Hints:
By secondary structure, the chain is mainly beta.
Amino acid sequence: MSLPPQVHRGITGRITDKATGEGIQDAAISVAGIDHYVHSVEEGHYWRILSPGTYDVTVIIDGYAPQTIAGVVVPSGADWTVKATVADFALVSNAAEVPDGVAVLSYENRQELLAYDPPPPPPLPHTYSHRTQSSHTSLQWFVLS
Length: 145
């Protein structure tokens, strides 16, 4: 099976814990102006298909300060040969003290960072699929708290 080259366009990267370097799974990656999240998978990797343009990308997950990278550029190319733009995030744990002089999220001071209360990411879907020789059943549902 061959995929169209457009699926290689967008942003990709890894979400890690800044202190340990370990990947963070299930972080919500959002793009300003687009009402759709994607989530990081094992080892913190993520992929988001986007059209050419400039975007502000934010990562949110419980236990970590949210982080935004402003002005991420997805270049254009007439033949769609341009690969995905890499945007890696190293998140600071909420439990860790943020040292003075460290710029986190482009906020001017730590008090603003600690006061930031982002909305929670949407719930992940649960999926059930059953296939026989003569039929296929697929269900998807969300658990809301």
